[in-house]
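Tokens as discussed.
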């Protein structure tokens, strides 16, 4: 394995007083609704509204003084951008973030407010990443990958370390997948603490990149608009893939209707604001209740940075 439980424990020590140790809480309302015993890991309450600052800090802290002085570049739909920008500002590192042109305005504004320079480029993450890599090559800056980096994976794995420390008796852990950094790191930590735990990943049906890769199929899907833009990844990670293949029992797909319903359910039944990606784990449980019924199920709520206009339209459609 490229990342071990010792790496994740070391990352956790580095992250003390750098990020929030987010609460993990049982949900009576969602348990009643789903038939499972639901426990939530609330990364939507993290310092920038998602889990991303965990890995970002570990990567930035590991840069040389020369690299820090030259500055860093990242490509992101928003959450990775804010994680990098937050810590870069605190560490005095110049940061440039390239984002797809359709990135929700609130994520752009928040990233700029954290002190990073934002450059909008391309229709999706792949195009934004190409622009970022070009800048790195031209200006000699370090590229901070959103998921395919051992330091990033170790940092994100602290989510699983905390969750299983608080609730070691989980039967199932359900985690959203974009490029796989959160799932891979969380799976390493969770399996080390509870080897019998079943781990399930969740992708947006419009972006089934990891599930296709695990089956040996060529990349497919992508290009369409999704409420879960935070996990709208066309090409999964090379480092994350073998970890997920080894440790994760299944990867399920959830469609847009299920994602919207999960966002609405979190708000109405739990009074939690979640983005589409953050609600993916609940969407997976709600679309297959029989699979989870009677089991203690941990859901990682990976983020809450949803565009206000999008949230309004989701709630209106739900009411209709």
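Sequence:
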């Amino acid at each position: 394995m490229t990342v071990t439980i010792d790496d994740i424990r070391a990352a956790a020590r580095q992250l003390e007083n750098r990020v929030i140790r987010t609460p993990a809480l049982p949900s009576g309302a969602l348990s009643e609704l789903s038939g499972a015993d639901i426990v939530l890991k609330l990364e939507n309450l993290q310092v920038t509204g998602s889990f991303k600052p965990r890995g970002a800090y570990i990567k930035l802290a590991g840069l040389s003084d020369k690299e820090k002085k030259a500055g860093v570049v990242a490509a992101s739909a928003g959450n990775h951008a804010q994680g990098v920008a937050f810590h870069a500002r605190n560490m005095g590192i110049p940061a440039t973030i390239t984002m797809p042109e359709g990135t929700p305005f609130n994520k752009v504004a928040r990233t700029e407010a954290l002190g990073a320079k934002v450059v909008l480029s391309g229709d999706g993450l792949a195009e934004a990443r190409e622009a970022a890599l070009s800048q790195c090559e031209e200006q000699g800056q370090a590229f901070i990958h959103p998921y395919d980096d051992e330091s990033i994976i170790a940092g994100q794995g602290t989510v699983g370390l905390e969750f299983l420390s608080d609730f070691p008796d989980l039967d199932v852990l359900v985690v959203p997948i974009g490029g796989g950094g959160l799932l891979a790191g969380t799976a390493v930590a969770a399996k080390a603490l509870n080897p019998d735990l079943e781990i399930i990943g969740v992708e947006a049906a419009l972006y089934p990149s990891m599930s296709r890769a695990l089956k040996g199929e060529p990349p497919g899907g992508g290009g369409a608009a999704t409420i879960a833009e935070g996990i709208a990844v066309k090409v999964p990670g090379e480092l994350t893939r073998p970890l997920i293949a080894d440790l994760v029992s299944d990867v399920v797909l959830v469609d847009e209707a299920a994602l919207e319903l999960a966002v609405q359910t979190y708000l109405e039944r739990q009074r939690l604001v979640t983005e589409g990606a953050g609600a993916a784990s609940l969407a997976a449980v709600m679309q297959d209740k029989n699979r989870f019924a009677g089991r203690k199920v941990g859901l990682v709520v990976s983020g809450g940075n949803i565009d206000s206009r999008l949230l309004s339209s989701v709630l209106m459609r739900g009411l209709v």
